[in-house]
């Protein structure tokens, strides 16, 4: 089985590498293993091992990791813009949704104008329309 490749910005990759280095440094006076620390080390290591760093997807308007998406929530008319990427790896000021989240799964592969639906934990169905999808590098400086 091949691990899923995860899209990261260069900044997020650098931050995760620094966090991993700090976590791997022996803590003063630490004698008992810290389970939370060990889990975070494993999580970061997995992210870095499977990372695709800063390689933009094609500018073809299709929703996929590494794209900044604008969606309209059809029931309310509200819009939201977010990066489809890896949660837990900061990407600056833009909101990040994982491709594995309900919204991320629903819009993955969508083209502008395409409506998708997903269920929220309450069981309700939310309908969204993809309005725009552009590579992260084209919007990060805005």
Query: What is the CATH topology classification name of the largest domain?
Result: Chitinase A, domain 3
Order of helices and strands: EHHEEEEHEEH
Beta-strand fraction estimate = 25-35%
Indicate the CATH class of the largest domain: Alpha Beta
Number of strands: 7
- The average pLDDT score comes to 87
CATH architectural arrangement of the largest domain: Roll
Q: Which structural class do the helices and strands define? A: alpha/beta
**Termini, distance in Å?**
39 Å
Number of domains: 2
Helical segment count: 4
What do you see in this structure?
This protein has 142 residues and is an alpha/beta fold. It has two domains: 6-53, no CATH class; 67-139, Chitinase A, domain 3 (Roll), CATH 3.10.50. Helices cover 28% and strands 27% of the residues. It contains four helices and seven strands; from the N terminus they run βααββββαββα. The protein has helices spanning 10-24, 35-49, 102-107, 136-139; strands at 6-8, 51-53, 67-73, 79-85, 96-98, 115-119, 125-135. Strands 5-4-3-7-6 form a five-stranded mixed β-sheet. Strands 1-2 form a two-stranded parallel ribbon. Helix 1 (10-24) packs antiparallel against helix 2 (35-49). The chain is elongated and about 55 Å long. It starts with 5 loop residues before the first strand and ends with a helix. The model has no long low-confidence stretch (mean pLDDT 87).
């Amino acid at each position: 089985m091949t691990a899923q490749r995860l899209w990261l910005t260069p900044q997020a990759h650098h931050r995760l590498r620094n966090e991993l280095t700090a976590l791997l440094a022996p803590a003063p006076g630490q004698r008992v293993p810290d389970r939370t620390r060990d889990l975070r080390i494993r999580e970061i290591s997995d992210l870095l091992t499977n990372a695709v760093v800063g390689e933009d997807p094609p500018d073809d308007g299709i929703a996929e990791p590494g794209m900044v998406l604008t969606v309209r929530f059809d029931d309310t008319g509200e819009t939201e813009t977010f990066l489809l990427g890896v949660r837990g790896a900061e990407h600056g000021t833009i909101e990040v949704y994982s491709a594995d989240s309900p919204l991320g799964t629903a819009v993955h592969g969508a083209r502008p104008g395409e409506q998708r639906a997903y269920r929220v934990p309450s069981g309700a169905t939310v309908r969204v329309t993809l309005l725009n999808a552009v590579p992260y590098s084209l919007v990060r400086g805005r």
